[in-house]
Amino acid sequence: MRSEPHLGIVGRAAPRVDALAQATGRVKYLDDLSYSGMLHGKILRSTEAHARIVAVDTSAAKALPGVHGILTGEDLPVAFGLLPVSQDEHALAVDKVRHIGDPIAAVAAEHPDIAQRAMELIEVTYESLPVVTTMTEAVETTEEPIHGDGPRNNRDREISLEFGDVDAGFDIAYHIREDVFFYQGNNHAALEAHGALGVVEDDGRLHVFSSTQVPHYLHRILAKVLEMPESRIRVTATPTGGGFGAKTDVFSHELVAGQMALITGRPVKFVLTREEVFYAHRGRHPVLMWVKTGFTSDGRITAMSFRTFIDGGAYGSYGAASLLYTGQLQTITYRIPAYRFEGVRLFTNKPACGPKRGHGTPQPRFGLEVHLDKAADDLGLDPVTIRKRNLVSPNTVTVNHLRITSCGLTECIDRVVADSGYLDKRRHLPQGHGIGFAIGAYMSGAGLPIYFNDMPQSEVMIKVDRGGGVTVYSMAADCGQGSTTMLATVVGEALGLDPSDLVVITADTDLTPVDLGSYSSRVTFMAGNAALEAALKLTDLVLTAIADELDIDQDAVEIGHGVVVAGDREIPWAEAARIAEARWGLLVTTGTYKPPKDIKGDYRGAGVGPSPAYSYSACVADVKCDPETGHVSVERVWLAHDVGRAINPLLVRGQIEGSVHMALGEVLMEEQTFRGALHSGPSLLDYKIPTVLEMPRVESIIVESIDAEGPFGAKEVGQGPLLPVIPAVVNAVHDALGIRLDAIPLRPDKVLAALDDLERGGPGRYGPTDLPDYTFRSPLRVDPPPEAVTV
Amino acid sequence: MEPVTLTVNGATRRLFVPPQRTLLETVREDLGLTGTKHGCELGECGACTVLIDGVPILSCLTLTVNATDCEIVTIEGIGSMTEPHPLQRSFGEHGAAQCGYCTPAMILTAKALLDRDPNPSEETIAEAIAGNMCRCTGYLSILSAVAAVTEENQ
Questions:
Q1: CA distance A662 to B136
Q2: Are A634 and A434 in contact (CB under 8 A)?
Q3: Could you list the residue range(s) of the whole structural domain that residue B139 is in?
Q4: Nearest beta carbon to residue A15 from set B92, B130, B137
Q5: Which residues of A touch B107 (CB under 8 A)?
């Protein structure tokens, strides 16, 4: 739903509603909670990468004074997984461990040091199994698959889809180009480590506090694994000290905290160490990809074939969706008349990958945007022209049945190209200095819920008290993105109240109506729409009551700043609310949001990719590269993002700048790598993220396409701006040194290897050449929608 | 247990602590000042920064017994919701906190800088906060928030 803001509350660059609480240290994160009599939990983790558990002897640990509870796999035997199709995890290992760091046992003790000592007293007898650490090994190994057995081997998920006649598209192509790329995996590195606290409340119900982005899913999975009805469990998501997708899965420590509280009768807190965070992981999948595209002589795409191999680590997690995301969203920026996507997710004996900011799309976006840069060179076009010749148009449908509505992509491109002087600088900067360009797009929320049902994805309730105070209830979890401020701003605009005067109760299954969670950039669009609907219903109740009271036409009554305006009279909000309560009784309204049903196709895999609206971005990056050391530094970034409408431009800019930071980490330095199956450096000293000294100037350009269905026209900004930055930097390195780096991060050794290749008369390339020897099943052929442009 | 005397946010505190207890544990668990955060417990992220005699120090790497007789300032000691320090207000106004987890340490580090150099350049501000990681903001709004409260901008 959409409404027009007229009070200037929406659109104002205002501080977050919790800004002072944050800056004064008053915000209570998970680890800041404590209860009298609280026990401290620790999790014993596997030292083997792949092994059968022969025995776990906890007798010595149990005998240690101060130890109150010990759990092993047999205590929580129910398998779980966030996706219904991937029920392959246990709270604590049952039968097998599958990566170094896999949870085996848990201890609760009077003091963390006692819990630590108890862990050291637990004896685990392993029977080692063959270890698989690379995707090639995963494809080739036939003995002892990581999960199950039989012909599936180490294949988790496979997808093979073809939309339109791809061979015909290649047949009519004037030019065909193929490339292979590799995108290394990386970790979210949120500053707050994960944690959970279980408490049995006075009514005997279990209360689990957790640093989670998805209290609703935690609620479901706690009920499943602990074998209790959901009504006996309360979940509260504490303010999250950074999420980025890290806290959208359900983890061992959350389930164990709940069970431990139940068996000991005492509050029990688990907080992961930084090392454990790297084992819990669920970060970016390493992706090896191959792309082949046909073009007309003037650069129009005739067909595309995209193949991805994604390294899932040891568990499914969100991987079935991650795999589809590596193929589904290529079509929302470019008009691709025929498209084939084949992908496979493989299990390896490493921590499970999952969703990280951009979920499954930064990897193919990197490949696609570098591929197009090369194709432009092949065809004698500039990188802007080749893209503009292929852009999707607003209000169209893609070949894979995705509905495009508002699209400010052309404006994003024009703004960054003009502001940066890209076309004049390209190929004209001195050696070692380059400029690169790329675009991207992302969803404003996944169109389908993870657990298929017809209920709303987001529900909001508003209540007014007798002093005129307004409380908004929503399960949306603020992971730093500002969802609480967004809710207060949307409701504030509708009611004419300052956002900081509203009370917003969030993320608590006892108190708040369901919102599915802070993932897929869904909260502004979905919870925002639900909040707007509830607020407009409340506005209607108040205006009707005032019109009745004054015996005037309702059209003569409207909301003003803190008042209801009736002709020349201004009735203070609190008084207006009292009049309305006298007229209607308790002032409570609700709003819900469910995405439209017609935004998806009807084929296996069609559930991933549809969104009620897509955000669009364009980026230009200015880089300097030292040919002696191979060091790449990013000097300046221009980033234009179509957010639909900026509900709070200060927070929108913050998401753009934060996305640029995270993207630069991924393209320049961050990598979750392993020596065999052992993490190369599970600490923030070894795992480098950009500091302030690596951060360039960022020119954030907000483009507003005013989406017809978004709340006040808004779309997402939390993830989309990350996408074009990575390929823009890689393309800039080509402009600077004439080399093509088809594998990221751009470590200095790769830059030097490519320079060396150039010097020896080669193409000046660093990157993969081969794909694993893997035969995809023949693709499921899907007819494009009649309105899509086809071959 | 070792006896220690600390001045924390202006108040003298006499405590008995185990010799291995870190100042981070003492501040958070013994004194209940949870505005000081732990992000890594290995001196990597800077989230546990407190001021010891005016100097930003990683409290996770400092033994409480080594801080005896020192003057310690935590985020709770520089301002409140009703009377915030100018930096605390400025961080909100510039969107310099998103998840807020690094914010107390970042503000204390900036305060120490401004106390010794009331008019730092942007480069000086960046160098001062280079040991404090922020994963949300990309730091630019933090630089603006600090620059806004230098003496010449006030």
A1: 8
A2: no
A3: 86-153
A4: B92
A5: 23
Predicted pLDDT at A89:
97
Strand (E) or helix (H) holding A41: strand A39-45
Contact residues, chain B, for A691 at CB < 8 Å: 130-131, 133, 139
Quote the CA–CA distance of A445 and B11 in Å, as a whole number.
50
Domains along chain A with CATH numbers: 39-129+194-271 (3.90.1170.50), 162-186+283-447+600-782 (3.30.365.10), 455-593 (3.30.365.10)
First to last CA, chain B: 47
Query: From the centroid of its chain, how far is CA A452?
Result: 20
- A151 DSSP assignment: T
- Cβ neighbours for A735, distance < 8 A, ≥ 6 positions apart: A426, A427, A429, A434, A435, A436
Do residues B61 and B117 both lie within one domain? no
CA nearest A59: which of A147, A124, A128? A124
Rounded Cα gap, residues A580 and A559, in angstroms: 14
Q: Would strands A206-210 and A233-237 be described as parallel, antiparallel, or unpaired?
A: parallel
Asked if the Cβ–Cβ distance from A20 to B88 is below 8 Å, we say yes
Report the alpha-carbon distance of residue A456 to residue A554 in Å, rounded.
Answer: 31
Tell me how far the alpha carbon of residue A654 is from its chain's centroid. 16
A681-740: per-residue pLDDT in tens? 999 999 999 999 999 999 999 999 999 999 999 999 999 999 999 999 999 999 999 999
β-partners of residue A237 are A210
Q: The CATH number of the domain where B36 resides is what?
A: 3.10.20.30
pLDDT tens per residue, range A253-302: 999 999 999 999 999 999 999 999 999 999 999 999 999 999 999 999 99
B71, B138: one domain: no
Closest approach of chain B CAs to the CA of A211, in angstroms? 12
Assess whether B102 and B72 both reside in one domain. Answer: no
What is the C-alpha separation between A260 and A249, in angstroms, rounded? 20
Residues of chain A with pLDDT under 70: 149-151
DSSP assigned state of A411? H
pLDDT of residue A150: 60
Instruction: Please check whether residue A774 is in contact with residue A134, taking contact to mean a CB–CB distance below 8 angstroms.
Output: no
Q: Which strand (E) or helix (H) includes residue B107?
A: helix B103-116
User: Which of B76, B98, B127 would you mutate first to test chain A, the one with the most A CBs within 10 A?
Assistant: B98
A431: burial class by Cβ within 10 Å (0-12, 13-18, 19+)? exposed
Residue A414 has what pLDDT? 98
B118 and B141 in one domain? yes
Cα distance from A133 to chain B (closest Cα, Å)? 27
Contacts of B92 in chain A (CB under 8 A): 15-16, 19-20, 22-23
Contact (Cβ atoms closer than 8 angstroms) between residue A50 and residue A126? no
Domains contained in chain B, number: 2
* Of the partner residues B45, B91, B137, the one whose CB lies closest to the CB of residue A657: B137
Domain termination site, one of B77, B102, B132: B77
Residue B41 with chain A: CB contacts under 8 Å:
273-274
Q: What is the ipTM of this complex?
A: 0.98
B71 and B7 assigned to the same domain: yes
Strands (E), B9-151: 11-17, 49-52, 55-58, 71-73
Using the 3D structure, point to which of B43, B77, B111 is the last residue of a domain.
B77
Sole residue written with tokens 């022209």: A385
**Which residues of chain B neighbour A18 with C-beta distances below 8 Å?**
100
| Residue A196 DSSP SS3 | strand
H or E element at residue B129:
helix B122-129
Q: At what angle do helices B122-129 and B103-116 cross, to 10 degrees?
A: 130
pLDDT digits over A573-614, tens only? 999 999 999 999 999 999 999 999 999 999 999 999 999 999
The position carrying tokens 């689990």 is A208
CA-based nearest residue in chain B for residue A25? B35
**Chain A, nearest residue to B131 by Cα:** A691
